Amino acid sequence: MSTEINYKFYLRIVLPSVLAIALFVISIFAIIIPTFEENMLERKKEMIGELTNAAWSVLDEYQLKVESGSISLNDAQKQAAGVIELMRYGSEWNDYFWIIDSHSYMVMHPFRPELNGTDLSSYEDPEGTLLFSEAVEMANNNGEGYIQYIWQWKNDTTRVGPKLTYVKAYPQWSWIIGTGVYLEDVQLEIASLKQRLLRISLLIISVIIAMLVYMLRQSLIIERKRRNAENDLKLSQQKYKSLVEASTEGTIMMMGEKIIFANIKMTEMIASPSVDLQKMKFEDIFDLEWKTVLAQLTDPNKSVNLEAKMKVEGDNLREVIISVSKVDYAGDSGYIVVAKNVTRQKKLEKGSDKLSQELQIALSLMNQPIHSFIREIITCGISATIREAAVLMTRKNHDVIFIQQNDQIIGTLNERDLKARVLASGLSDTTEVSAVMTSPVVSISDDALMYEALLLFKGKDVLHLLVNNIGDENIGMISYFDVLTMQHNSLNYMIKEIKVAENIETLRSIHGRMPVLVNALLETGDKTGNITHIITSLSDALTTRIIELTVEKLGMAPCDFAFIALGSEGRREQTLSTDQDNAIVFENVSGKLLQEAFQYFRKFGKEVNTKLNHIGFRFCKGEIMAMNPKWSQPVDIWKAYFTDWIKSSDPQSIMDSSIFFDLRCIYGNCDFVDQLLGHIHHQADNQAVFFQHLANPIIKFKSRLSMFGNIVGDKEGGESKIVDIKKIQLPIVGFSRIYALKHKLHETNTLARIGKLHSLGLINKEFYEELTLSYGVLMQLRLRFQSQSELNNLSPDNMVDIGQLTSIEVSTLKKILSVMENLQTQVSFDFKGGV
Q1: Helices 528-554 and 765-791, interaxial angle, to 10°?
Q2: Of 210, 414, 533, 575, which has the highest C-beta tally within 10 A?
Q3: pTM for this one?
């Protein structure tokens, strides 16, 4: 038995340790040193590149003198060459710069003056490299680059060595300037590094061997003790095993730090039937350290309850309460751990209160008048110089000055203008301000609100607004930066968090806060269009970040592509109950590249869709997702899809494909989506049958009003009637889609489509207002009930209990259902008999 134990321990500990040592040594000499050598050479390249740029700037400085007329070109070239000839660097100050012209004639060489003025186009190094001809070719083709050759060792004419030179053209003078680094210096540094690493490696290996001997000895002692104690444990095992298995909650029993058995309920809670809990540690199941739990058990006769998170399958976390009790187990201490699920309701409610308060404060501030932010203005005349204006701005500590002519403010000059229009353009400070001012001046009334000012700043792209009172008198100005400080809301922070998130669990946590945000926005009375736009913005940001992380993992795609959203996300109308509808359209490629594209996007789509599902966007039941190879195709295949759908005579196929006509680009080359929209509009032109099939679901929509004017529910829930609000919205969505396609509109959002139809005079104002209001009310009901479901730890859906609505809401819903009938009438009139 002892021989068997020794063999197992040598196999499990000694062999891996020896392999680890071998890999350590190999990694140093096969990976670390070559990488270091490569990095060192790159640093040398960067160094000589920066140094050459410094010498190059000398030429540029003298060229400026030539352009200003203070010196002739010939004198400038002589003086510049003389300055660069004296420039030295390096540890011994023997490294230098040389200059040739574009015809390979040496202009200046500090250590080989005999070459000056000679034609070096046929000059070869000992290995036959036409180094100066290559330098000219490199400069002419690329403007700059690196050349490797054999050259004199610094200022020693009796010695040569390999050298790496960086050359850069100065096209104004047809000169090429260069300098280099000797590769032998790099090799000497590498040799020194190898010696140091060898000594360090020997020291580390010695320490590891000593530790290995000690670990072997201790492991053998522990193993013998364990086997001796095993027989004693068997006597108590059956007793506590029966207790654990009989528990209705997830239960494990521990001895020391080892799980000795667990019940089926615990396995179900982890959601991994195949896992062997007895091979896991406490920390593998919960996010607490076992020693932290033991520290709480101060009284052996009392149980301890702790909040924890259980690590379930797929790297998810589930909130639980664990109860830990100490028991006597074969003369030793054992522990029974019971885990219970807890609701997220209190946490969400707490988060909702906090976020609601944040939003209420932000919205209140943004609805404040601009009075407190008005500052005095300073002015100067139109003939004032830039210098005079800058001096006045500095003395008054203002970042803007207003330009005045005949008591009228006609322009502004701010710090951004001074940088962009004066300094960057090299204008003289004696230039008049009228030449660089921004005009006309944008004004705002002194009774305007903060958000109005913010919209004006962004719409006019200005940094300062002139403030007028009711008598149209100038009373001051406000700054964009002052207003910007007030634009503080949780949405911005969530977007920023998403952009810097480095793992899926962080994104999952951010997505989990969306119900809290929606509930807070509903409490503020914000428009549902704004709320769904915010939800979509967060969804887009989450999707984009997942795509970026996936690209980092899989590498760049073999060709251009666009990740597109379909259905509600494509319309920017996502709610809290949504699944994935997305696809990939990529560049038209062929041959081997096409096969590479299919292979890449198959992996890419599966990775992205799986991660989206993990953070909370459910898989599409109809498999309309990027991971489905059918929906990951080149542009021409997608065009063929749309052509087939539009010209198909099968009503069901057209109805099934309707969500594809609500496509929107989320990531990548959005030109592909524009191409598809143009193709759709072209193909759909004069296709009467296609529009008739699209109109049929709208016309056949069954009214939820009974003959007595009562609302008829989809489902019966006790005494309450349940209505699917999403189904009631579908005719409005379908109405906006069919008219958008008919009139070649690029908008995908339902309200945007309706607004465009109204602006084009295709629907009257009354009908436009009825549709807009109806859609907003229905969306508000969906979001409200979904938010309540989330806060009650229930899965959100689109069902609304009529019994929970107020009498006004019920009346409003009845009015909306009557609007649907008017909508059906118009669609039937326009499309039933052809278009």
Answers
A1: 60
A2: 575
A3: 0.47
Burial bucket for residue 162 (CB in 10 Å: 0-12, 13-18, 19+):
middle
Rounded average pLDDT over 321-337: 80
Cis peptide preceding 515, ω within 30 of 0: no
How many residues belong to the chain?
Answer: 835
- Weakest-pLDDT range from 445-454, 458-467, 505-514, 647-656: 647-656
- Asked if 277 contacts 259 with a C-beta cutoff of 8 angstroms, the reply is yes
User: What are φ and ψ of residue 646, in 5° steps?
Assistant: -65, -40
Q: Which of 531, 456, 535, 542 is nearest to 507 (CA)?
A: 542
CA angle 220, 221, 223 (to 5 degrees): 65
CA distances to 247, 253, 303, 420 from 243, rounded to whole Å, are 7, 10, 16, 79
Instruction: Answer whether 560's CB lies under 8 Å from 586's CB.
Output: yes
CA distance 681 to 646: 10
Which residue in this structure is represented by tokens 């490299």?
Answer: 129
Q: How far apart, in whole angstroms, are the C-alpha atoms of residue 2 and residue 174?
A: 85
> C-alpha dihedral over 78, 80, 81, 85, to 10 degrees?
140
Tell me the CA distances in angstroms from 756 to 532, 751, 768, one per residue in order. 19, 9, 10
Least confident of 247-256, 378-387, 591-600, 671-680: 247-256
Residue 251 to residue 714: CA distance in whole angstroms: 42
Alpha-carbon distance 163 to 129, whole Å? 12
Beta bridge pairs of residue 59 = none
Residue type, 208: I
| Side-by-side strand order, sheet with 443-445 | 443-445, 464-468, 474-479
Residue 811 has what pLDDT? 85
C-alpha–C-alpha distance, residues 831 and 827, integer Å: 6
Helix (H, G, I), strand (E, B) or coil at 616: coil
Residues 512-540: tens digit of each pLDDT: 878 877 776 676 565 777 778 778 888 99
Interacting residues of 201 by C-beta distance below 8 A, sequence separation 6+: 24, 25, 28
Residue 660 near residue 581, CB atoms below 8 Å? no
Whether 240 contacts 246, CB under 8 Å:
no
Sign (positive or negative) of CA dihedral 496, 499, 503, 505: positive
| Amino acid in position 285 | I
366 in Cβ contact with 451 (< 8 Å) = yes
pLDDT band per the 50, 70, 90 thresholds, residue 405: very high
Q: How far is CA 244 from CA 240, 254, 304, in A?
A: 6, 11, 17
User: Mind listing the pLDDT tens digit for each residue in 23-55?
Assistant: 877 877 778 778 877 887 888 888 888 989 989
- Selection from 496, 748, 506, 467 nearest residue 611 by Cα: 506
Task: Give how far Cα 57 sits from Cα of 52, 61, 512, Å.
Answer: 8, 6, 55
Instruction: Say how far apart CA 722 and CA 193 lie, in whole Å.
Output: 76
